[in-house]
Amino acid sequence: MSGQKKITKLITILLLTAIVLGVISGCTSSATKAESTNRLDAIKERGYLEVVMEPYFAPYEFIDPSKEGQEQYVGSDVEFAKYIADKFGVELRIVPLEFGAVLSSITDGKYDLAISALAYTPARAEAMNMSKGYYFSKDNPGYGLLIRKEDASEIKGPEDIKDKIIVAQSGSLQEMFVNEQVPEYKEFKRVSATTDGFLMVQENKADVCSVSIAMAQLYIDANPNAGLMIVENFEFEFDESVDGTRVGIPLGEDELTEEINKIVDEVVSTGLYEKWYMEYTEYAKSLGL
Q: pLDDT, tens digit, for every residue of 137-150?
């Protein structure tokens, strides 16, 4: 091979090597950029925040049937979601799901936030980031049992339902209380929405429903002929060290969690969330919820 051909071949090899290295460098740069873009940055870049909730838990989140589209979702949690979106300078998009799907969609990282009256549990804390508490049970009654009035003399606590059918919302704190604090029952049924549990007791398809007392009382007040009541002088035992309704955030999104916690501090210290809660308690009553 002549010297000229050797030089030409060498130049060709060098050019091809440079091209390959450039492609690799470009891919590495793109990958690094993608990795460095956290969810908070992504939300601001795309211009909207996707918040998932189960809109059947007044006064936190519920539906106003006189409205349509995104406007139909109302409640103290909805106001909180709007406040967060405003702070981020983006549009709010509410995604309504059943409660079990609310939880799984956050653990899978499908949506940005779950704002759906979420209580802390160790299992949830392992599967997702959880914000500081923004509403606390000390401000309201805790969790108890809903029964028919006709059974008041018979059912006074968990020990009285060993031959009864109890119902609770699947994936909820109320379900956990049944599993941990009800020693025996005839059957345990799960439903996708707490209001379905209320109806099951009302229609004699179940005898007892594990409930948030505040929400159940709203339903009783709005439906005085339903024949329902809360078991008196009983509440499930609750660890106050993990008290507080919280925001669910995809696991590992620490920058987003930090910003959410700052906003939580604002709405708690100013009493803003408490104001929303009281406002939408009255709103829910006006709708007969």
A: 665 778 999 999 99
Measured CA to CA, the distance from residue 204 to residue 208 in angstroms comes to 10
Residues in Cβ contact with 169 at an 8 Å cutoff, skipping those fewer than 6 apart: 99, 175, 190, 191, 192, 193, 194, 197
Q: Between 272-286 and 213-222, two packed helices, what is the crossing angle to 10 degrees?
A: 30
> Cα torsion at 46, 251, 83, 81 (round to 10°)?
90
Q: How far is it, in rounded angstroms, from Cα 41 to Cα 194?
A: 35
Ranges of CATH 3.40.190.10 domains, the chain: 40-136+244-286, 139-237
CATH class name, domain 40-136+244-286: alpha beta
Would you state the structure tokens that stand for residue 39, as one six-digit string? 């969810």
This prediction's pTM: 0.74
Q: Give 53: exposed, middle or buried? Use CB within 10 Å, 0-12, 13-18, 19+.
A: buried
